[in-house]
Design a protein that fits this description.
This protein is mainly beta. The chain has one domain. It is built from one helix and four strands, in the order E-E-E-E-H. The longest helix is centred in the last third of the chain and has 6 residues. It is elongated and about 50 Å long. The structure holds FE2/S2 (inorganic) cluster.
Length: 80
């Protein structure tokens, strides 16, 4: 079983615990220490909004989808 979820965030989310500790939650989906941010969001800083970038399990970019028909097909995929 597998699923595709498109992460559109380019930065982590700052969370402060009840004890006042600051935790940065990964929103880009590429963290080595998911769900905690590992800094890998720097890789997505220059991604264009009209493209979809595909990464392997090690965080290496393997493809960029910019074809209009493919982007249209992926339009309904869940985005977080
Ligand atoms: S937000 Fe994903 S690694 Fe930082």
């Amino acid at each position: 079983m597998a699923r595709i979820v498109i992460h559109t965030a380019k930065r982590p989310h700052r969370h402060v615990t009840d004890k006042g500790e600051e935790v940065w939650i990964c929103m880009c989906g590429l963290s080595d220490t998911y769900p905690i941010c590992s800094g890998k969001h720097r890789l997505v800083a220059r991604e264009k909004d009209d493209e979809i970038h595909l990464y392997d399990q090690h965080g290496n970019k393997i493809a960029v989808v910019s074809d209009h028909a493919m982007l249209k097909a992926l339009e309904g995929v869940r985005r977080v």
